[in-house]
Amino acid sequence: MTRVTVWNEYRHEKHSDEVAEVYPDGIHTAIADGLEEHGFDTHTATLDDPEHGLTEGVLDDTDVLTWWGHRAHDEVADHIVERVHERVLDGMGLLVLHSGHYSKIFKKLMGTTCSLKWREAGEKERLWVVEPSHPIADGLDEYVEMPEAEMYGERFDVPAPETLVFNSWFEGGEVFRSGCCYTRGSGRVFYFRPGHETYPIYYRDEIKQVLANAAEWAAPGDGPTPSFDNAEPLEEL
Amino acid sequence: MTRVTVWNEYRHEKHSDEVAEVYPDGIHTAIADGLEEHGFDTHTATLDDPEHGLTEGVLDDTDVLTWWGHRAHDEVADHIVERVHERVLDGMGLLVLHSGHYSKIFKKLMGTTCSLKWREAGEKERLWVVEPSHPIADGLDEYVEMPEAEMYGERFDVPAPETLVFNSWFEGGEVFRSGCCYTRGSGRVFYFRPGHETYPIYYRDEIKQVLANAAEWAAPGDGPTPSFDNAEPLEEL
Amino acid sequence: MTRVTVWNEYRHEKHSDEVAEVYPDGIHTAIADGLEEHGFDTHTATLDDPEHGLTEGVLDDTDVLTWWGHRAHDEVADHIVERVHERVLDGMGLLVLHSGHYSKIFKKLMGTTCSLKWREAGEKERLWVVEPSHPIADGLDEYVEMPEAEMYGERFDVPAPETLVFNSWFEGGEVFRSGCCYTRGSGRVFYFRPGHETYPIYYRDEIKQVLANAAEWAAPGDGPTPSFDNAEPLEEL
Amino acid sequence: MTRVTVWNEYRHEKHSDEVAEVYPDGIHTAIADGLEEHGFDTHTATLDDPEHGLTEGVLDDTDVLTWWGHRAHDEVADHIVERVHERVLDGMGLLVLHSGHYSKIFKKLMGTTCSLKWREAGEKERLWVVEPSHPIADGLDEYVEMPEAEMYGERFDVPAPETLVFNSWFEGGEVFRSGCCYTRGSGRVFYFRPGHETYPIYYRDEIKQVLANAAEWAAPGDGPTPSFDNAEPLEEL
């Protein structure tokens, strides 16, 4: 059974009544519940836990980590970012959600600013599936519609995704590469756009489906562990 | 000086007053004029010319071929398609425009149906630049806007582009990968979406700029010509 | 249970004692046996069967098709190639093996000549895993070694693979992109280099493992079936 | 005229007679001379210069930066790495050479360890051109051969290159992705493998050709500068 650790900054929910109303137990709880429904073994961790809840022990028991953060990216300790980075390169899957695009760990894995345009206007979004054979699109229709979403617009300053699964349309005139697959080291990384804290997006069935698909896709396999060192001498070959 | 042959089906213009009003000398003339302004040496060819205007001699003098077709794709002779295909694999650039997505040559190069959704409703389109460092985006703003366009929507059934330069937004709710780069053999292929026959799109400065950029990008270089045969015997190495 | 149809030209085995000694029941039987060991439900089909064994009924019951051919590519009927092509675009997986690089179906899917260099000298090959997190590399070491192989060398005239899983080294001085992943339509295609008819390559455990991994990877998922037609009118959106 | 700043750690040459004999004026001088022959305007900078020779002023006058380092990667100051990183994202080209794979700037741009295997045995290397239409292959034969090279072997722990131009074969049994193109932000990055300090590799005509081609390819264009901020309000669109 794939083990997912759901990480959440968990600050908006504690400081904003508007957000608390949507996610009374935190965004992490909503995400974890959705994954549980799909048969995953979940665990949650938040910024204010000791070591942000991401101890070596927790990561030892994690196949895939999901990351939601927004207003406190800078409070994530660098040594924890290093730890998570090493785990990803060693094969742990990582799902970066919505405003997590500006997290230290995502910027470190991408090598770019991960900047974008945004607008909070509760506008309509459609995530079009552009790669229907990708496992992350399993069980979906041709597009997923959000009646109200924060807009994220191009240019999204990331390396071109290895696979672009979703391409978003927004009512106000923008587009966005909303589902982006990457490989870093032996780890798989998926960026998924939806998920603003004031909209009940993580309760939607299609979103739960995508997160479950992505967790399955990002779970580590059984490939070789590369050796990085001085190779055998030439004469023995 | 880069030599561009501008190919046009040239039927709509002869049979529809509406189209003839927009392109009185044919779409090919408008495209060729735009390329001439940017310093290219152009030549035009149309479906009803002998050998569709694509004789071996013409192709000998062609660095980049542009392709516009719509209602008569089936009338393009298979042996001419083979001839163009060989030239592309040998290094000739190919710019496939708008409804050319359904041309025999594009389908042959892609290996897929090249199908898509469409709607003729004169709606607004924005082509967002998603890869600003690509030479095809030189001289552009963050997006190019068409006040009235035919809509093309995803799923666009092509292989994922090697580079996605433009991503289109449409008023009616669709998105489309509008500027797609491919390499086939030693040739470079660019698909560019805008260009319906009833809108004066090829007279627009930004569109001329994109076609000039793309022709420059697709022009053949001076790389090695691969040999495909039985290699030197093992013992001589 | 994933259903694999193993297709073989099955001519070398009938006309060459040397090949018959290595594959007395045909290459298809060896490949099918390996897949059975890994839990697949297999079926075989050969060139000389009616409709080459690839009737609509057989394809209805096929999740993944494997293709081995060499000397009789031209004898494969075009309408059967069309049929297989449509099935791939609709989601059937396709594993193209060794000299199958020159098959009609592979060339049609790639859009290029699929040419390469070759040398029959029984030289050593090492397939290095360059993407260790890819599911096709599951269960392997850092490289797979063939003590004796036919050499295939670059330039391999195919579109750049979406994922390059294996990169081959040959004793005589060449390299080759030996494990190449593609998406075409809703189907997944994997080209895998090893497999000359005079070497017992398909009996090797690592090769069976790769084919099993690839069949699993290429099996169709449950993504959306795109509609390709006139979209809903603008006014209703 | 494209302005290239050639950066060199410049330590081996000062501390090893063997290296000083090959590169008496430093590796940077040899690289800069080769670029001058191809018409570039060059400038050199080294680790022990103030600010490592990479002041804001120098970078203002730099279109493309080349980077050679090996034993003193850790001595490169983090704030200079940040400065170079920002410049690359803003459009400056970067050519990372040989042991520069372990430089701070390359690791920061890639997001991975950039590890590999190596062996110093003066063995033969062949760089096969796998993408003959790429401008970095202009003027080359099908492969470039180094009679004596340090071996670098896969797994090379980098993100899959956007374009793989060269694929190396080594006498001792390894392969390596030797010419790798990336886009990061608005900047273009090329990793090129050859170049050990004890072999006179940067004096070779084919290597000078590749570096000139790569500098031309990586030079900044005239694409749009993306804005990253709160977009226009929805109601004004």
Automatic annotation (TrEMBL), chains A, B, C, D:
It comes from Halogranum amylolyticum. InterPro entries: Class_I_gatase-like, ThuA-like, Trehalose_catabolism_ThuA_prok. This is Trehalose utilization protein. The lineage of its organism: Archaea, Methanobacteriati, Methanobacteriota, Stenosarchaea group, Halobacteria. Residues 218-237 are annotated as: Disordered. Residues 3-218 form the ThuA-like domain. Pfam families: ThuA.
